[in-house]
Amino acid sequence: MPSEHGVEKAPKVSVCIPSYNHARYIGSSIKSVLAQTFKDWEMIIVDNCSTDNTEEVLKTFADPRIHFHKNETNIGAARNWSRSASLARGEYVAVLQSDDQYLPGMLERSITMLDTHPRVGFVHSSFHRMDSDGNFIDMQQRWEHDQVIDGLNALRLLTKDCYITPSTVVMRRSLFKDLGGFDVRYQYSIDWSMWMRMALSSDVGYIAEPLVLQRPVHPASLTARSIMRKPRLATSEELRLIDEIFGILPASREWREIRHEAYRNIMYRHIVKALWLLHHGETSPFRSEIAYVIRLNRRFPLQYRKVMALWAASVLGTGFPKWLDYQEQAFWQAFRGQRRREPTVIVP
Known about the structure:
The chain has helices at residues 23-34, 54-58, 77-86, 106-116, 151-158, 173-178, 190-199, 222-229, 232-248, 253-279, 283-296, 300-303, 305-316, 319-335, and strands at residues 13-19, 41-47, 66-70, 92-95, 101-102, 120-125, 127-130, 136-140, 147-149, 170-172, 203-207, 212-214. By secondary structure, it is of the alpha/beta class. The chain folds into 2 domains: 13-214, Spore Coat Polysaccharide Biosynthesis Protein SpsA, Chain A, CATH 3.90.550.10; 222-316.
């Protein structure tokens, strides 16, 4: 929109949509922005060399607030996020996943909170999850009431888990730029890195009303396949990120305890991903991922004996965990002075 002096006026908020092969969904994403009750926005779509008909879908929209850019080569998801946000001109910036959708009041509610609370660096909200066909799965709500959370308190929560969904976030562009934008060294934790860095220097707003329809990462996506087959890719990034964040924080007893909890949570998430491999018959990758986490954590075999039994079973056969269970029972029977029962299972 031109100003009195003929210079185009910057919009209040920039909605950035980094896209790749989401022709099936991106039209709905765009329509959800067009349907917003708040109208002073621009939309920046940066396509990362999609091989489907994404560009044809985009050409069906003629709104002058929509700006389309296409990368000459595929620069990866993290760099595409970074490029789309770097083109923003608004006071506030949002990154909408190209398969997610806003509900009509998303921008209005988020901008009102940012305008009302100058110390809030970014705001996020509850959201609905839907499947690939748009059917409702459930509602994800962190708290029941709107609130502003002190940055360090938000950081205490964020170090334990990245519970914030990217499409629910609207952030101050000034803070985003001051922090250098998205850190493209992180391929799987680019959003988590940003939320924690922002919480180091600002408060965090939360809106309890669900304002976004989100599709969970599809198992067939390139990112999902990479993490499922080799969980250490995400785990190694998370460990590096936690080390960087805690390197900035005070070396107090409280933060040391929080760091230990953050580390345990990363280990737990790795185990869940590794067990997914075993459940789907991927025994060799499962063993590799358990060996990886043992190298990281020498106490792992003691902390996760059942997982170690499954690891051994994947090598020695299913009789091994039964034998291990018998040995454990026999130890405690001897410890209590009880008569030892003879084994009924022979190790294969």
